[in-house]
């Protein structure tokens, strides 16, 4: 093939493309491109404004955090101060609560010396003292009851008309201490009954009897407070909610004031073994037992002497319990006093104390 023929061949082959190119160049064809809305100053302003807002919010949050921290710190300081004040108040209250007992203990120690025997438990605190008065030998038992199980009264062998010694009653019940309670009346058939109004476990043993011959009821209320006195109506005694109690004569102190002792009890007998009970202002009990070798009036204590001693100790209310051969004080399984009968007398009622 010659050069001329070759040129003709390439010309024919390229003709379509050349024509298309010419058409494109000659045609009025336009291509619309999307416009970009780019405003650097506007966008920069918007970003700056948002940044400022964020900065302001951060500053506010920081300020709030600082204020919150300060408030928490103040509350914490107040809490610490309050806790300290509460602790100090508790210590003061504890000290003040113990102070009356210490005062009473100091009064007793000044009068009787140091306790010879003590018992301390969750139920009760007992302190036993021995002392020598100018005219008699005596014992004192201070009782601090901490629960309803600390003290009770027992009927002799748990039967109306029966009797047993204080030591036997304490042993039978497992009591740590015991003391004689109210008076009694014997019958021809050999039975021994509690004198007049008697209450056991909140119930009247054989009904209520109005006070006569200066008799006085003495016992404990449902809230472990010493109660007693003369009662013409059962309703008056019921108001005191007696838990247990017995009857004897006379009343020695009321509200710290000495009561008039009936003349027959001043001299018949003048001196005798005695058992008396009183309460302090903090409701602790004090029993005093006076020894005597008989009931003929030549040994033991007078009621006036015991009344004076109770008043000196600032006892609030006080009552005389059965005395003479009935006077009995037992402690931890042993008889403490010297019974005038030469042995303990069987009694229809006894006060018992439990560890």
UniProtKB/TrEMBL annotation:
Keywords: Glycosidase, Hydrolase. InterPro entries: NAGPA (IPR018711). It comes from the Bacteria. Residues 173-354 form the Phosphodiester glycosidase domain. GO terms for molecular function: hydrolase activity, acting on glycosyl bonds. It holds the Pfam family NAGPA. This is Phosphodiester glycosidase family protein. It comes from Paenibacillus hemerocallicola.
């Amino acid at each position: 093939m010659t050069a001329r023929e070759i040129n003709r061949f390439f010309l024919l082959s390229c003709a379509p493309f050349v024509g298309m190119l010419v058409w494109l160049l000659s045609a009025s064809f336009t291509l619309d491109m999307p416009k970009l809305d780019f405003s650097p100053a506007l966008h920069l302003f918007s970003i700056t404004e948002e940044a400022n807002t964020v900065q302001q919010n951060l500053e506010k949050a920081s300020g709030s955090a600082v204020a919150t921290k300060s408030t928490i710190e103040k509350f914490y300081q107040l809490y610490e101060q309050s806790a300290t004040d509460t602790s100090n108040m508790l210590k003061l209250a504890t000290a003040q609560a113990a102070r009356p007992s210490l005062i009473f203990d100091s009064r007793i120690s000044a009068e009787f010396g140091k306790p010879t025997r003590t018992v301390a438990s969750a139920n009760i605190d007992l302190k036993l003292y021995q002392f020598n008065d100018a005219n008699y030998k005596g014992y004192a038992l201070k009782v601090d009851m901490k629960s309803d199980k600390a003290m009770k009264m027992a009927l002799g062998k748990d039967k109306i008309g029966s009797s047993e010694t204080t030591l036997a009653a304490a042993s039978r019940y497992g009591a740590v201490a015991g003391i004689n309670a109210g008076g009694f009346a014997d019958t021809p058939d050999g039975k021994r009954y509690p004198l007049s109004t008697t209450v056991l476990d909140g119930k009247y043993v054989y009904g209520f009897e109005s006070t006569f011959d200066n008799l006085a009821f003495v016992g404990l209320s449902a809230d472990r407070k010493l109660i007693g006195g003369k009662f013409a109506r059962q309703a008056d005694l019921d108001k005191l909610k007696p838990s247990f109690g017995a009857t004897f004569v006379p009343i020695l102190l009321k509200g710290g004031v000495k009561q008039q002792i009936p003349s027959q009890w001043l001299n018949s007998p003048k001196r005798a073994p005695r058992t008396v009970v009183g309460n302090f202002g903090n409701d602790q009990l004090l029993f005093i037992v006076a020894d005597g070798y008989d009931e003929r009036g030549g040994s033991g204590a007078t009621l006036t002497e015991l009344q004076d001693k109770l008043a000196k100790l600032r006892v609030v209310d006080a009552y005389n319990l059965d005395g003479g051969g009935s006077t009995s004080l037992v402690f931890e399984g042993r008889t403490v006093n010297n019974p005038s009968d030469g042995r303990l007398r069987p009694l229809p009622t006894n006060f018992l104390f439990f560890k």
